[in-house]
Input
Amino acid sequence: MKSLTLKQLRYFEALARTGQFGRAAEDCAITQPALSMQIKELESQLGAPLVERSARRVRLTTLGQQFAARARDILRAVYELGDLARADGDQFSGPLRIGVIPTVAPYLLPRLIQALGRQFPALDPQPRETVTQRLIEDLLESRLDIAIVALPVSEPALHEEPLFEEEFVLVRPASEEGAMVPSADHLKEMRLLLLEEGHCFRDQALSFCNLPQAPRGLMEGSSLSTLVQMVGAGIGVTLIPEMAVELETRNAVVSVARLSRPRPSRTIGMVWRRSNPLANRFAQIAQIVSDTGRAGPRG
Amino acid sequence: MKSLTLKQLRYFEALARTGQFGRAAEDCAITQPALSMQIKELESQLGAPLVERSARRVRLTTLGQQFAARARDILRAVYELGDLARADGDQFSGPLRIGVIPTVAPYLLPRLIQALGRQFPALDPQPRETVTQRLIEDLLESRLDIAIVALPVSEPALHEEPLFEEEFVLVRPASEEGAMVPSADHLKEMRLLLLEEGHCFRDQALSFCNLPQAPRGLMEGSSLSTLVQMVGAGIGVTLIPEMAVELETRNAVVSVARLSRPRPSRTIGMVWRRSNPLANRFAQIAQIVSDTGRAGPRG
DNA sequence: TAAAAATACTCCATAGGTATTTTAT
DNA sequence: ATAAAATACCTATGGAGTATTTTTA
Output
């Protein structure tokens, strides 16, 4: 006479995601036996196994895979249900999980958190920084509410709200201050430093230089900060978004130059699940982010 | 730190549907205080009221209405999740909630239940008889698995599987045995007895007689059995589906005549929710129903 | 004043914790 | 031999029951 519980779905989803009872339990903030028992109970209710047990790793059965897919949809819908109440009322309160790409986060977040705090004192912004692909996954699985990324992302389930246009600038060793600014095609002849694989800004820079793929022997860095320091050491040149200039070039012996013909830029925007009941709230938030982004570091 | 439970959703759905704590509790097979507590807990978790309390009757708040709509979707999905396991394996087992329209049920169900029992010994058919509109509602809300109705029903969420074509025949007093068979247009001049409002067969009969609406002074009955008995008493004539002939005319002083030009008929079919994981099973069931229907009462 | 919801309390089922054993690599 | 899952046992939370009070139409 027992029936399915959300608890069971949550635990099973974690198991399907982590592939291990122990990790799943940790993820759910319970102990491994507790999770094992719930999975066992779930399987007994269904009358069929969801996972193939083995000591090292757990594999989902065919049924388990179908089950996991539907369970995820349900958990997402339940999450949205919980947000329904927050969408009404006059003040926006509670946790807001914001994802931001690494080439924007450090330059925007401090001022953004401030601005949000001023506008919505009861709001609890929970920022998270990672690459676009991960942010999109997290959004689709309801592990994030909104994400600030470079547009377009082209996911049908997501709404895209453009916030501001951001130009790229060239960073050269200080010794080249005032030298002639190279064209896009000249750039690819130079020793170009780029972010490592996975960062959208890497692809945007490559694209501006008319390079379909990264050239051999490309020097890579894991952050814009690293790239600029490498430029300062005379290793090469790089491109960075305008927003990063103030912070990153302050303590580096580099010079900054505007590019032109065409002037390179990207659109920063905010995305969220269309079905999220907080969508209207997010539109308000987007306005604040846009203002913050345009105001610049002095804002 | 608590989170939503399906129990809360089920109780709230019942409350939204019944509009009363007591009825909802009864519906959920618990006591009224237990349900009250869960609703209270739910509202406190959301931080906003879902219902406006009053002694006589409960009204949903705006939030409550949105919440109820989403909750229903979730509960439906959870129900389907529970059926996922039954879709695999080689034998189809467990409860199968079958809805059948009243002008088909008594003539088909006995043989159908037998046939199902032969084919799927572990299956537990739970038939329910009511008019098409109610059946469709129940299907959409996951209170039924399949329904046997006259096609088309034209609901995008439902799959329609045609089973067999069923002709209508004319039932006249026994005294008119062998008399000339009237045409469709003649029929509307005669004293026609029809089923009461809500039965699709009523509309099908009217449509065959080229009557857009029921004529004034129409005699109505609540079952085909009643109609035939009235014909036997010399009150008028009526149309019944072929399948009903054997059972209904056995103990009545009436004669049966085939109609023609055009020969009237309707398509009996089976419908189910497209998203139901048991859909493949239902296709098997449909084959059995079709065979049973075609075989006739001597089956 | 009568019907329905809320409150007060009691009990027990069960979810989850700790400790340990079993299993598979 | 080791890491992970299952098993055994215990505890405590909270869901549901009964009895009663409060509310309002």
Remarks:
- The first helix of chain B runs from residue 6 to 18.
- The radius of gyration of chain B is 24 Å.
